[in-house]
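Please, structure for the following, as tokens.
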Amino acid sequence: MKICAIEIDKTKVIMYILEKNNEGEYTDHTNKFTSITLNDDLDHQEIINFTSTLHSHFDSLNLDKIVILKRNTKGRFSSAPISFKIEGLIQTYSKTKVEFISPQTISAYYKKNEFPLKEKHKYQIPALQLAYFILNN
């Protein structure tokens, strides 16, 4: 199974693509495409380019599932409004199921389970932990 795990941080989509084969071995397919940023959410052409780039990347990966780390919608630690627009653009991808997992679920899982994988970049840790969680549940 091949998963694209996504963390949306303000205007940036941070991805980690992880595959688990039948023998239980993991393969990182993230390569150099680790993130994409939407700089101006009011620029129509930029929205089109962002969506096209993201969906083309999804097409090239032949994914089984896309999973997004949920963000707070209310309160002091609520996410930036543009991040919800980005979330909607990801959800318009029709070739693969898109799911949401709460950070609390991930946190509870790793309190009881070890995280054996090593990230390439520190900023990818939440996305990698999400991918590993999905592949093991």
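DSSP finds four helices and six strands in the chain. The domain at 2-135 is CATH 3.30.420.10 (Nucleotidyltransferase; domain 5).
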